[in-house]
């Protein structure tokens, strides 16, 4: 299957960002992609650098403008599109939500970001409620979304640091792991520290592919976005990539330009890899109970 990952720069104009995303998706489809992944919160600047109640005006419902536009394009092009939006679930209840639009334009499913960071420049707990551990119908929050191109283990940004999340998606039958992302450098950090952070980010996600025998798609934004509060900001580090079930690179973007990554993903390789590296077979599930504890004293 041919897949595409979109690495995009954003501006303050919501409509311009969405139009640009749609144009890049169209280009990816013209290159033969059947599945296209957009970056986290691709309709706006990354607004979590500060805490500002007026920003909640950016949130939208599902269905809403983003799902309608992405759904119409998915139907027109006959592809599956994974988008990301600031969801207004109810008054005072907001999520960082990824959406999957099927080839016929319908909403195949949503995933609400489970792990919410709160760090300097990434004040997400102010804006986002964590996704539900269980849906009303009893499904885990870590449930793959079934589509015509496979079961998508969809996670979002900060989720990418947690092996538990990737494992639970794999145990539920995910065919791929997908990470829409918005992550970058503090420009005050030394270059060596910046490189360590980037290397860690790439390594942990490739490791999820290895540990679970699954391909991984990662879409990060690029470009500098200044803080609304002062002259500081985030230099988003790009480096979007696609890797196979042994962590092998299938495509990788650079740090500072918009790109459409195209890669061929063979979902049958997961079966072959899992036969020679049968991690799921050898898990000691009888000995892992303490993983549900916050800390082992």
Question: In this structure, how is the largest beta sheet organized?
Answer: 6 strands, mixed
Strand content: 25-35%
What is the CA–CA distance across the termini? Answer: 47 Å
**What global shape is seen?**
globular
What is the helix content?
10-25%
Describe this structure in words.
This protein is of the alpha+beta class and 297 residues long. It is built from six helices and 17 strands. It has helices spanning 14-30, 65-77, 163-171, 191-212, 269-276, 279-282, and strands at residues 2-7, 35-37, 80-90, 93-101, 107-112, 118-119, 122-123, 145-147, 150-154, 176-181, 184-186, 216-220, 222-226, 233-237, 241-243, 249-252, 259-264. The relative contact order is 0.15. The model has no long low-confidence stretch (mean pLDDT 97).
Summarize the structure.
Helices cover 25% and strands 28% of the residues. The chain is an alpha+beta fold and 297 residues long. A hairpin with a 5-residue loop joins strand 15 (241-243) and strand 16 (249-252).
Topology, element by element:
Elements: E1 2-7, H1 14-30, E2 35-37, H2 65-77, E3 80-90, E4 93-101, E5 107-112, E6 118-119, E7 122-123, E8 145-147, E9 150-154, H3 163-171, E10 176-181, E11 184-186, H4 191-212, E12 216-220, E13 222-226, E14 233-237, E15 241-243, E16 249-252, E17 259-264, H5 269-276, H6 279-282
Parallel strand pairs: 1-2, 2-3, 9-10, 10-12
Antiparallel strand pairs: 1-17, 3-4, 4-5, 6-7, 8-9, 11-14, 12-15, 13-14, 15-16
Helix pairs in contact: 1-2, 3-4
């Amino acid at each position: 299957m041919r897949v595409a990952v979109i690495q995009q720069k954003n501006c303050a104009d919501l409509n311009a960002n969405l139009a640009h995303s749609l144009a890049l998706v169209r280009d990816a489809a013209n290159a033969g992609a059947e599945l296209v992944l957009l970056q986290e919160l691709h309709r706006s600047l990354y607004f979590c650098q500060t805490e500002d109640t007026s920003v909640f005006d950016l949130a939208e419902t599902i269905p809403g403008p983003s799902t309608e536009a992405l759904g119409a394009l998915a139907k027109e092009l006959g592809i599956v599109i994974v988008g990301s939006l600031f969801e207004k679930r109810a008054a005072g209840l907001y999520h960082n939500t990824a959406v999957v639009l099927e080839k016929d334009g319908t909403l195949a499913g949503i995933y609400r970001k489970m792990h919410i960071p709160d760090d300097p420049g990434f004040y997400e707990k102010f804006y986002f409620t964590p996704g539900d551990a269980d849906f009303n119908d009893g499904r885990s929050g870590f449930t793959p979304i079934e589509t015509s191109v496979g079961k998508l283990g969809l996670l979002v940004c900060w989720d990418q640091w947690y092996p538990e999340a990737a494992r639970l998606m794999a145990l539920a039958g995910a065919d791929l792991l997908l990470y829409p992302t918005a992550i970058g450098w503090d420009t005050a950090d030394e270059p060596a520290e910046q490189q360590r952070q980037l290397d860690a980010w790439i390594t942990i996600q490739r490791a999820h592919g290895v540990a679970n025998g699954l391909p991984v798609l990662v879409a990060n934004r690029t470009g500098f976005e200044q803080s609304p509060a002062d002259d500081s900001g985030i230099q988003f580090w790009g480096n979007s990539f696609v890797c196979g079930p042994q962590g092998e690179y299938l495509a990788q973007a650079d740090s500072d330009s918009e790109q459409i990554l195209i890669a061929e993903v063979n979902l049958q390789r997961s079966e072959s890899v899992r036969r020679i590296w049968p991690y799921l077979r050898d898990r000691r599930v009888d000995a892992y109970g303490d993983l549900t504890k916050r800390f082992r004293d």
